[in-house]
C-alpha cells in the first residue's frame, strides 16, 4: 500500500518558519492532488492547503492565506508546505494526503476522498 511520509515538523517560536515535506518511494505522486491537513487536540481535522496534479492550481484555508505556500516537485516526488509567520494556533499534527486526479477548486477534496495518508508530523508554535 502506498505510504506517504511527512517530515519537517518541530518546535518553533511565534513568527518563525518551517517547511514540511511529503513524499513516498513506492509510487509516483504526479497524478495525485496533494492536500495538507492539520488536527489540533480536541479539534476536527481540517484542510490547510491543496495543490492539483495537473495545472498546479492551489487552494488555502482562510486562516493560513498569505502565510503558507504549498508546492510540489514531481521530479523529486515530493510536495511541500512552507509555513511562515507561524502562530500558536498553528500548533497541530500535520498530515499529507493524496487524491488521484483530485480537483482543488472551488475547495480541496473532501476528507473521505483520499487514497493515501501519511502518519503526520507535529508542529508546535510556542515561546
What share of the residues does DSSP label as strand, in percent? 35-45%
**Mean pLDDT across all residues, rounded?**
95
Report low-confidence residues grouped into runs of 5 or more.
Answer: none
- What fraction, in percent, of the residue positions are helical? under 10%
Give the CA-based shape. globular
Rounded to an integer, what's the Rg over CA atoms?
13 Å
Q: What key attributes describe this structure?
A:
single chain, 127 residues, mainly beta, 7-stranded mixed β-sheet, 4-stranded antiparallel β-sheet, globular
Please characterize this protein's 3D structure.
This protein is an all-beta fold and 127 residues long. It contains no helices and eleven strands. It has strands at 5-7, 10-12, 18-23, 32-39, 46-51, 58-60, 68-73, 78-83, 92-100, 116-117, 121-125. A hairpin with a 6-residue loop joins strand 4 and strand 5.
Amino acid at each position: 500500500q502506498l505510504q506517504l511520509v511527512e517530515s519537517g515538523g518541530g518546535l518553533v517560536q511565534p513568527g518563525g518558519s518551517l517547511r514540511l515535506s511529503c513524499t513516498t518511494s513506492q509510487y509516483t505522486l504526479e497524478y495525485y492532488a496533494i492536500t495538507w491537513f492539520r488536527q489540533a487536540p480536541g479539534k476536527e481535522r481540517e484542510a490547510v492547503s491543496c495543490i492539483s496534479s495537473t495545472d498546479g492550481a492551489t487552494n488555502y484555508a482562510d486562516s493560513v492565506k498569505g502565510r503558507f505556500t504549498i508546492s510540489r516537485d514531481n521530479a523529486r516526488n515530493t510536495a511541500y508546505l512552507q509555513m511562515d509567520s507561524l502562530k500558536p494556533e498553528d500548533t497541530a499534527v500535520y498530515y499529507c494526503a493524496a487524491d488521484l486526479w483530485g480537483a482543488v477548486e472551488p475547495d480541496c477534496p473532501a476528507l473521505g476522498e483520499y487514497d493515501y495518508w501519511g502518519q503526520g508530523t507535529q508542529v508546535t508554535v510556542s515561546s
